[in-house]
Amino acid sequence: MIKLNLGRNCLKVIIRTYGIKEIFIPYYSCKTIWQAIREEDCKIRFYHIDKNFMPDCEFSKDSYILYINYFGLFAKNCKILSDKYKNLITDNTQAFYAPNFGLATFNSLRKFFPVQNGAYLQIEKEPKMNFETDNLKLKAGILCMQGDEIFRRHSEALAEESPKQTTQNDKYYINYEQFRQNELILNKEPIKLISAEVEKQMNDIDFESDKKRRIEMFNRYANEFGRYNLIKLPPLEDNIPYCYPLCTNNKEILQKLSGKTILRLWDDMPKSFPEYEFLYNVASLLCR
């Protein structure tokens, strides 16, 4: 395992290590991934996903394929694809706790924890390159939110419950403008090793408690919103979720969500895409 500063830089290392000239990636993905690939002079071939979040096409046995473990819920898909394609690369940026599948896997620490950056890269072939250690200092601007707070805002079922007492460590803070500025800074960051400060912060996290909390929040969201959700979600089983993805055309639910601070993932899906039917305007309710 190699600890780097950013998930997108993990992908750059993978491309360089294997000399990848062309890679298949899903349309439903973050544009920073597209940018990272293109900066490595690697050609992108896009593919669609079906309602089960599987590629809707076949690839050649030698193709390099990036697959995203969406919302941290599709480890089974990763396993199926890794058994079928030897050059699978798994993007676990939404699935910190998921197993590693394929010739390389990478995640993102800041999507799960209150750290400014950091990513873990699992790769079969050792990279022949050296990097300096990250010493970047960003101002607080983490676009996350403590799970109960989201649920109280959007669930009538908890409307009469007393607010839960939370500690300083339980809360993630929102400062969107600073978050946006931080993103602009991170977009320019070269490949570096993880900072000592972030590594220390990660050593202080109670992972078992975090996993338990995420499962609890996911189940509460599912109980409240599941009957309205157009996304076909698999059983949670051993998956540890990043969020509960909610896609609905129910006006009552949409009104509850209107104007609230909710993470939205890549919501500019063209109507002509088959994914649009079940992925348009997805509201990601964070499981924290």
Keywords:
3-stranded antiparallel β-sheet; 2 domains; alpha/beta; 288 residues; 5-stranded mixed β-sheet
Task: Write up what this structure looks like.
By secondary structure, the chain is α/β, with parallel strands linked by helices. It folds into two domains: 2-123, 3-Layer(aba) Sandwich (Aspartate Aminotransferase, domain 2); 147-286, no CATH class. The protein is 31% helix and 14% strand. It has nine helices and ten strands. It has helices at 7-18, 31-39, 75-84, 147-154, 176-186, 196-203, 207-225, 251-257, 276-279; strands at residues 2-4, 22-26, 43-47, 65-68, 88-92, 104-107, 119-123, 243-246, 263-264, 283-286. The strands form three sheets. The chain has a five-stranded mixed β-sheet with strand order 1-7-6-5-4, with helices on both faces. Strands 8-10-9 form a three-stranded antiparallel β-sheet, with helices on one face. Strands 2-3 form a two-stranded parallel ribbon. Strand 2, helix 2 (31-39) and strand 3 form a beta-alpha-beta unit. Helix 1 (7-18) packs parallel to helix 2 (31-39). The longest helix has 19 residues, at 207-225. The chain is globular and about 55 Å long. The two termini are 26 Å apart. Residues 142-174 have low confidence and may be disordered.
